[in-house]
Every structure is written in C-alpha cells, then in structure tokens.
Automatic annotation (TrEMBL):
The EC number(s) this enzyme carries: 3.6.1.41
Protein name (database record): bis(5'-nucleosyl)-tetraphosphatase (symmetrical)
Pfam families attached to this UniProt entry: HD
NCBIfam families linked: bis(5'-nucleosyl)-tetraphosphatase (symmetrical) YqeK, HDIG
PANTHER family: BIS(5'-NUCLEOSYL)-TETRAPHOSPHATASE, SYMMETRICAL, SLR1885 PROTEIN
Catalyzed chemical reaction(s): P(1),P(4)-bis(5'-adenosyl) tetraphosphate + H2O = 2 ADP + 2 H(+)
GO molecular function: bis(5'-nucleosyl)-tetraphosphatase (symmetrical) activity
Keywords from the UniProt entry: Hydrolase, Iron, Metal-binding, Nucleotide-binding
Species annotation: Romboutsia faecis
Stored SMART domains: HDc
Enzyme class: hydrolase
Residue stretches making up the HD domain: 18-133
Length: 188
C-alpha cells in the first residue's frame, strides 16, 4: 500500500485523537532520527502505524488471530493493552503490505520493549511516550534526555515507570519489559 492508502485505512480504524497521536509519534520519531542517525522513512511508517490494532473489538481480535495464526502469550491473551502491538505488527505486514522487518518489529515491541532493542525499536518506543500531546509527570525529563543523545537513559526511566505503574495497578508485568530494563541497565 502507498502511504496515502495506509493513512486512509488508519483513519477508518482509529478515533481522531489516536490518529493525531499516531501522526505525532511519526513526526517525533523522524526528529529523533536526526539525532540518532536512523532511517526517517521507516520511522515515519512505524510511527503512524504502531497503534493500528489499538481499537479492535473482540471479534476483530479473534478474526486476525485466526487469520494469521497469531501466537499470543499468557499476558497478551485477552489483554488488548498488550496484544495490540503484536496483532498490529501482523496487520501492518499482511494488510498494509509493509515488508520491512525492522518496521514490523518496532510495531511489535512498542508497548513492552524487549531485550537488546534495535535503534528503530527504541525510537518508536520513546516517541510513543514523548510526542507533543503526551502529558504526565516527568515527560519533560524524558523529552530532554531523548533529544540530547541520551536515548538509553530515557528508556531505562520509562521501563522503570511502566513497571512501577503496572505494580501500582496490581497487574501482571510482562517479562519482556523486565528483560528490556535489565538489558539496558547492564549495558548503559
Ligand atoms: N510490561 C507490562 N506488563 C503489563 N502491562 C503493561 C506492560 N507494559 C505496558 N503495559 C500496559 O500497556 C499500557 C500502555 O500501553 P500503550 O500502548 O503504551 O498505551 P497508550 O499508548 O494508550 O499509553 C500500560 O498502561 C499498561 O497497562
């Protein structure tokens, strides 16, 4: 699909606010590419599509899981907050026909992160959190770090925030975020 066609699909799949967030993530990711020397076109495409599965209903989730034989783990099963990244990566690959594995993986891991993330995965993870409409305590610290060459520092704080947030909500923590956090900490 062309970028225009992907945009048209996304407008159908996402409410206006989430579409605006997706555009903001794409633009933020492109800005980060200037700092970290990453491919801007890939960053834009990953940014705009990253949340494509965020508003699927249960029937649509079942449909895509069956259609693409998607293997959701015990944390992702019945949890769209986690599964939308995985399902979204299949929609991007097979419905939007995005063939670039780096883009697909950036979509796939944008919610939990993972051990040993690629530069594009890191950029999309952080852009999702710091794009201009985001507003939470410490977002400016994360922006300052991300825009001043300290992407890994920003990621470490973000993983810590997520882990604390999930614990505060008395939810299960996906172990990929723990691995992501420990990996960054060991290699900082
Ligand atoms: N490691 C994790 N374990 C469990 N839940 C997680 C984990 N990481 C993220 N989440 C859940 O996913 C949500 C964030 O998903 P995200 O796609 O970033 O949403 P949004 O873009 O709306 O902020 C968190 O609010 C949390 O509930």
């Amino acid at each position: 699909m062309t970028l225009t066609e992907i945009n048209e699909k996304l407008v159908e799949m996402l409410p206006e606010r989430r579409m605006q967030h997706s555009l903001n993530v794409a633009n933020c990711a492109v800005k980060l590419c200037d700092i970290y020397d990453c491919d801007k076109e890939k960053a834009y495409i990953a940014g705009i599509t990253h949340d494509c599965a965020k508003y699927l209903n249960n029937d649509q989730v079942d449909y895509y899981v069956k259609k693409y034989n998607i293997n959701l783990d015990e944390y992702e099963m019945n949890n769209l907050a986690l599964s939308h990244s995985i399902i979204g990566s299949y929609i991007a690959q097979y419905e939007f026909k995005i063939n670039d594995i780096e883009i697909i993986d950036a979509i796939r891991y944008h919610t939990t992160g993972k051990e040993n993330m690629s530069l594009l995965e890191k950029i999309i993870y952080m852009a999702d959190l710091i794009e201009e409409s985001r507003n939470f305590p410490n977002v400016d610290l994360l922006r300052n770090l991300s825009y001043s060459g300290k992407l890994d520092e920003a990621l470490l704080i973000s993983f810590d925030n997520t882990i604390k947030f999930v614990i505060g909500n008395k939810q299960l923590i996906h172990p990929r975020t723990v691995s992501a956090r420990n990996y960054i900490m060991r290699n900082l």
